[in-house]
Amino acid sequence: MATFSWTLPVAGPGGHTVGPDAGQVWEGLVHKAENPSPYVPAVTACRVLERFDDGFLREITVRDTDRVHERVTFEEHERVVFRPVDDPCIEEIVNELGTDGTGRPTLTLRVTLSPAGVEKAEQTRYFLHETKRYFSDALQFIVEGLVERHAR
Prior knowledge:
- With 152 residues, this protein is an alpha+beta fold.
- α1 packs across α3 (127-151).
- The radius of gyration is 15 Å and the shape is globular.
- The longest helix has 25 residues, at 127-151.
- The relative contact order is 0.22.
- It has helices spanning 22-34, 115-123, 127-151; strands spanning 2-9, 43-52, 55-62, 66-75, 79-84, 90-99, 105-113.
- The protein contains 3 helices and 7 strands; from the N terminus they run βαββββββαα.
- 31% of the residues lie in helices and 40% in strands.
């Protein structure tokens, strides 16, 4: 397996404007899990299929074509873990709430490839590059969505 991660501050434009606090970021992450389209433009639809004590099973539609089932769990008001049920290349995706040196909230997006994903990255030109680009771009959109949600 291989894991990649990116971290951004969750702050207003340019990092200067007051942004959401950690509690508001957490509420936004929970909202994003059930309603990802405003945060991740590539996700064009989502429906919750089954609920559990610690999360739910959802079906998302990516770019109006690919359907992916994910088991979503919430951990300690710090982490939302997405485990694709039917994507052989991705083991898990984690959204983790943290803080920077000044105490402001940060968001880390961590993606772990499965052994099949690592093999595909080794054998398929651009797979790893495109996967990293997709998720690093997604983090930027998520942070922007969290800040915008707070500003309303």
